[in-house]
Specification:
Layout lengths: L1 E6 L6 H11 L2 E6 L10 E4 L19 H11 L4 E4 L1 H8 L6 E3 L7 E9 L15 E8 L3 E3 L2 H9 L3 E5 L11 E5 L5 E4 L26 H12 L2
Parallel strand pairs: 1-2, 1-3, 3-4, 4-11
Antiparallel strand pairs: 5-8, 6-7, 6-9, 9-10, 10-11
Length: 231
């Protein structure tokens, strides 16, 4: 199983995503934003970072990179695509996901371990979770507030497209406490928290068991592998 991770100018979590994919049991494949070749991958991850320095709008320039034409076609054909933080912003700017992401309502960059609730297990990236399961995943963003018009929000809620929701505190003012969403088909998912930073013991969030032992984010990647094995 081959999962591609795209590096854009300003990506900084691409190597972390590759490591999480390897730990999950798949082969990570490095992809470059300036190419049109997806190198035969089975799924794609758009990692976190600050592509093009967040110039214009976060993700706006990266969404027009050469490789994104291939990503868009692959997503429309059913390939699993995951956007994490800046990757989520890119997916929105590429119109693969609805809504928008704006400056945090408190105006500050935030970095914390964030409680989430799994709201949908019907996507390619969440089928390994239990519905309603509470997890802890690191969060780090300055423009992570999810917004959409009322009709879009209602459609996301009604169609089981809200994938993750913030618990305990809304860290950025996202509408409906939304931390992640999916497209209607469930193969494209975007989320602001970073599952790749909660994929290996010794490097994840603290848990009652031990410091830095949290690995809740690994299930995102093993879910994609499981989804691909059923195709």
């Amino acid at each position: 199983m081959r999962i591609g991770v795209i590096t854009f100018p300003g990506s900084l979590d691409d190597r972390d995503a590759q490591r999480a994919i390897r730990i999950a049991g798949a082969k990570p494949v490095a992809l470059w934003h300036g190419e049109h070749d997806l190198m035969g991958v089975d799924a794609i991850v758009l990692p976190g970072g600050f592509s093009y320095g967040d110039y214009l709008r976060c993700g706006a320039i990266a969404a027009r990179s050469p490789i994104m034409s291939e990503v868009i076609d692959a997503a429309h054909s059913g390939m699993p695509v995951l956007g994490i933080c800046n990757g989520f912003q890119i997916l929105v700017e590429a119109h693969l996901l609805p809504g928008g992401l704006v400056r945090n309502d408190h105006g500050d960059f935030i970095c914390r371990d964030q409680r989430l609730r799994v709201e949908s297990t019907s996507t390619a990236w969440t089928n390994g979770f239990e519905l309603g399961h509470e997890i802890i995943v690191p969060l780090k963003n300055g423009e992570g507030g999810f917004i959409a018009d009322r009709d879009t929000l209602n459609r996301l809620e009604d169609n089981d497209q809200v994938v993750f929701r913030y618990l305990g505190v809304n860290p950025n003012g996202s509408a409906h406490d939304i931390a992640g969403i999916a497209n209607e088909a469930g193969n494209v998912v975007g989320l602001m928290p970073h599952p790749e930073h909660a994929a290996e013991e010794g490097f994840g969030p603290d848990t009652p068991v031990a410091m830095r032992s949290g690995t809740d984010g690994l299930i995102v990647f093993t879910s994609a592998i499981a989804a691909l094995q059923t195709i």
